[in-house]
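Continuing the batch. This is chain 6 of the set; chains 1 through 5 are on the previous pages. Same settings as before, nothing changed between runs. Recording input and output for traceability.
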Amino acid sequence: MAQSRRSAPFYMTATTQFGLEEVLAEELHQLGATIDKVGQRAVEFSGDMQLCYEANLWCRTAIRILRPFAGFYAPDEKTLYRETGRINWADYIQPNQTFAITAVVNKSNLEHSLFVAQLTKDAIVDQFRNRTGERPSVDVKNPDIRLHLHMIENEVVLSLDASGDSLHRRGYRQQTNVAPLNEILAAGLLLLADWDGRKTLVDPMCGSGTILTEAALIAQRIAPGLYHQGKFSFENWPDFDQALWDSVRLDAEQARLEEPQAQIVGSDISPEYINLARENVSAAGLEDFVLLSVRDVKDATAPKGEPGLVVMNPPYGERIGEETEMDALYKAIGDTLKTGFQGYDAYIFTGNLEAAKRVGLKASRRIPLFNGPIDCRLLKYELYQGSRRPKSA
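Output for chain 6:
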């Protein structure tokens, strides 16, 4: 374990996608966090600096980790500028560093987030210029220090962004324009499906392989943050503890399991997608843990061994005129599940609930989620072997 270099506990917020809040709270709890509040698309928690580093490294469903440090009421721009200027910014930013501000504004007198961010930036820069004659520069693309301003009903909370680049960008995806799922959502589907990293997992419409790659990361106990590109933002904080971070990283590297823990199998009708899935799996260094093949979903069957899980994200048919094609596809999916995967639990993630009716099975769970702007459901089907009811004597 990381050497115990305990800082005083402090409050943090982890952001996520709608529907994954409880999953993220459980991830943080497993790391030792005290969960203070599970909100909408966010989990508030507390812990020390070691936990902050570990949350960035290990949380599979977090978008970013924020560290709130100031709050005040600002009903107008004059108050926002004045209260921002009362913060001692030298505690958070050095004059030779770059910074950027992301503002989220809701139900407030000041309506425009870009204006709020600009005014906050002016207050910070003016303080440095007045006190030292020097000022940090703004870099919106790759800043040393990222600040997050959240304003709701004129209440302002300022936070340090510990993560930097969004944690969903694991770095293994070779072509991000073709993947319908981001990494956080793919991991979230697996955790919502209660996959334990041991049972057989099958994705018979795997596309570019994001679900399979995230499954292999879970099974082999690999911290997704080990793939993070560049520095985490906390590495630029004035109180960054290099020795503690080195220890946390080493723990994560040593936690990796080298022997395959589960049978992870994927297929797709498109050879191009399977090639891309192979590239992604290989880029993550997981080619020994995922078996891929070209196969129509109609021909998919369960691999040998004990039944496990089917998790899939079929097309939604968003183009006009695809209704008939989608109906036929979802009927084929249902037929395949009934004949080829008895004893499995199947999870279908879809944004086409009309076509999903053609699966011909009764969903035992319907979990609301979003894929980007698309309202989706994760549907669970229990594929019983034979009759689900024991015959009476």
